[in-house]
Design goal:
heterodimer, A: about 80 residues, about 0% strand, globular, B: alpha/beta, Rossmann fold, 4 domains, five-stranded parallel beta sheet
Chain lengths: ~80, ~650
């Protein structure tokens, strides 16, 4: 279940950031990974909310700045 | 609350994405357009849109068939979140959309500064996307503070600002301008009582929208995006995302961005000649529930109670489309006798045989029927929409006629109208008198065609038609129709150059240009404006830039009269040559021999097949056919700006 969740988030990140799924790991992070800028941060939120039918608060949006952050934030919402 | 179990939807999405990418890589433009549209209808998400945009960017060179269009977005909010959706919906409509994004919130500066990036970009379309709150705060967040003041002067001040911005745009570009009208907030400022008060907030927003309507008709080639209608359809509570408005200056909720982009694309499609013209419908389980051949003409579901009521309502909707100018046709696998009988005997039928311009009822394939209808009506397959409830029939048509837009109906008849209405496939930028009468015009055409069959000679036929031609300089009332004809006419069109209202109005005000519309009336009725002629006079030469004729009136020698008229104009101006160009396209076969047939000499032929022609209007000229009664209005055009 968790693996499935991680994989789906990986795919979303890859789509939005325009990079390969295999490149996404613990070091994938806002401002460090090419493509992960503030506009795409919003696009990521929109895609995650749509994919998992969740709603993220601004505090959560501001705090999820790495791939592992996103996984734990989404996990806590489900 | 988890929706980790959406495997079906997710699978079909990823399959559609894979198919779209494959079609783009394989240079199969028609399939790419088809699959992109299917994907966006099934999943109008940022992921779908971005995937399509990325795949198109990588394969753009393989798709010269997509029509390029340059769109500038000037906005009071973060409109870059629209980009992926706009490019994706463009692809799904046969367009290659390129975007210029004006600096965030700088819409006034970009428009007023003649040296701004907006003008350097040379857009085909400028979208002015401004939220009411940013345009005119006294009607929004400051409403209660302002409501006791007389707002008349403030509204006038705002109107002047809008007019100045639009006129500035008009004077500096030939782009078509799309401007949002204004949405009301989710909650009226006076609460439950707001609607009742003529000085309430909803009334204030309505007055601003009335101002926009009058401004848009005052400045040429400005059109309103019905943003208020769009917000209303989706509901203000769904449309707006206060969180993102504060956090990212992006007031429109993420899931709604696709719908706003799709709304713009309705206009882009129309401007590039891609608005659909003809709707071909299936019968069984589409116009009525059940199968007429089995249930009998009175046994099908149609009438006052569900599901028959939903089918009757759908028929009513189709009749409404016809009143707007959509040509209706039938493609059905049935015994013709059964179909005749249901039309004759079932009183609940809203549609009648005379509402359809072509009827194909037999047991051959639907794709054959659709192709035959398109040929008979002289309409390109890219302008045809096919509607059927049967997925197998839909797939058959998609596969064999990839240029046709297929709408596959859901199992619930109450959803039919929405499925057809949401895409706005038939939407045009303006609706002319000719559009509203098109259904009758096609019927007149078939009456005229019957007469041709009985006339002794073709000349007798022309005489018996009793045609009256009116040549008039383009004026304010005919400008939109003239632009629409250049955008929609594909067959009898020598150069297929598309012009916007502002292109045409600029020429009409230039004494070096001859810009004329041609209207026709015959014994069967008034066809309205059916032709456009634009020619440029330089020195001794009058050069025909545009000469086109609606397909409804092809084959009546009106083109000969148009050339005779050009020769008259050329002689009056002292020119010694009339020149013309034929740019061959996939569709303009009927126009290719125009100049050769009328005694023009061929001067050159380019590698792409474009030919150049010349005639001496004094020594040779083109004589007027004797069967026309003609009126030539010579008063100068009275176009403002």
């Amino acid at each position: 279940m968790v693996d499935n969740l991680e994989q789906r988030i990986r795919e979303i990140l890859a789509d939005i950031l325009g990079i390969d799924v295999a490149q996404i790991g613990d070091s994938t992070a806002f401002d460090r990974t090419p493509g992960w800028d503030s506009a795409n941060h919003i696009n990521l939120v929109v895609a995650l909310e749509d994919e998992f039918s969740i709603a993220l608060d601004v505090a959560e949006i501001d705090a999820m700045l790495t791939f592992p952050d996103i996984v734990s934030t989404v996990e806590a919402k489900l | 609350m988890t929706n980790l179990s959406r495997p079906d939807a997710a699978d079909s999405e990823s399959e559609l994405r894979a198919r779209a990418t494959a079609a783009l890589e394989g240079a199969d433009t028609l399939s790419a357009v088809q699959v992109a549209r299917e994907l966006l209808l099934a999943a109008p998400t940022i992921r779908s849109a971005r995937a399509l945009r990325v795949a198109l960017a990588a394969q753009r060179a393989r798709h010269p068939g997509l029509k390029p269009i340059r769109v500038a977005l000037v906005s009071s909010f973060s409109s870059e979140f629209l980009h992926d959706h706009l490019v994706a919906w463009g692809l799904g409509s046969g367009l290659d959309v390129d975007i210029y994004q004006a600096g965030f919130g700088l819409f006034r500066q970009e428009i007023l500064d003649a040296a701004s990036g907006l003008y350097r970009y040379q857009p085909d379309v400028v979208v002015v996307a401004v939220e009411g709150e940013d345009w005119f705060p006294p009607a929004y967040r400051d409403f209660l503070r302002n409501m006791d003041r007389d707002s008349k002067a403030e509204v006038e001040g705002w109107q002047n600002e809008v007019v100045t911005l639009l006129r500035t745009l008009r004077n500096r570009t030939t782009a078509t301008v799309l401007i949002h009208n204004l949405a009301s907030p989710a909650y009226g400022a006076l609460g439950a009582a707001d609607a009742k008060h003529s000085d309430g907030q909803y009334a204030a927003v309505r007055r601003l929208n009335d101002v926009l309507v009058s401004v848009a008709s005052e400045v040429t080639d400005v059109h309103l995006v019905d943003y208020a209608g769009l917000v209303n359809r989706h509901g203000a509570l769904n449309w707006y995302d206060a969180r993102m408005r504060h956090y990212a200056r992006a007031p429109i909720a993420g899931p709604m961005q696709s719908f706003l982009a799709a709304e713009y694309v309705k206009f882009l499609r129309a401007l590039r000649g891609l608005a659909k013209k003809c709707l071909v419908v299936d019968l069984d389980n589409t116009l009525w529930g059940g199968v007429v051949g089995e249930d009998g003409p009175l046994g099908v579901q149609l009438g006052a109670t569900y599901p028959g009521s939903a089918f009757a309502e759908f028929q009513q909707y189709l009749l409404g489309l016809r009143a707007r100018g959509v040509i209706l046709a039938i493609a059905s696998k049935n015994n013709p006798g059964d179909v005749d009988e249901i039309f004759a005997a079932n009183k609940a039928m809203v549609l009648a045989p005379q509402h359809f311009a072509a009827i194909e009822v037999h047991w051959r394939s639907k794709s054959e029927s659709v192709a035959s209808i398109a040929t008979r009506l002289g309409i390109g397959l890219e302008h045809v929409v096919f509607v059927d409830d049967n997925p197998a029939e839909c797939e058959e048509v998609r596969r064999n006629l990839p240029a046709v837009t297929v709408v596959c109906l859901p199992p619930q008849p109450e959803r039919f109208i929405d499925v057809l209405a949401r895409e706005g496939l038939f939407d045009t930028v303006t609706l002319s008198v000719e559009d509203r009468r098109r259904g009758d015009l096609y019927r007149q055409r078939s009456q005229a065609e019957n007469m041709r069959a009985s006339a002794g000679s073709v000349e007798d036929y022309y005489r018996e038609l009793r045609m009256q031609l009116s040549f008039a300089p383009v004026h304010q009332a005919s400008l939109a129709r003239a632009a629409q004809l250049t955008q929609k006419t594909n067959q009898f069109n020598v150069t297929t150059r598309r012009s916007t209202e502002s292109d045409i109005s600029r020429r009409a005000r230039d004494p070096g240009w001859i810009v004329t519309t041609i209207a026709v009336r015959d014994r069967f009725g008034d066809h309205g404006i059916v032709g456009v002629l634009m020619a440029k006079h330089t020195g001794d030469v009058v050069e025909i830039d545009t000469l086109l004729l609606s397909c409804r009136v092809i084959g009546r020698t009106i083109e000969t009269a148009m050339l005779a008229h050009v020769c008259d104009c050329a002689r009056a101006r002292g020119a010694t040559a009339v020149t013309g160009t034929v740019i061959p396209t996939a569709r303009n076969d009927p126009a290719r021999d125009l100049f050769a047939r009328h005694g023009f000499a061929k001067m050159a032929e380019d590698v792409d097949g474009t030919t150049h022609w010349r005639l001496d209007p004094v020594q040779r000229g083109v004589p007027w056919p004797e069967w026309f009664e003609r009126a030539v209005e010579s008063a100068a055009s009275e176009l403002g700006d």
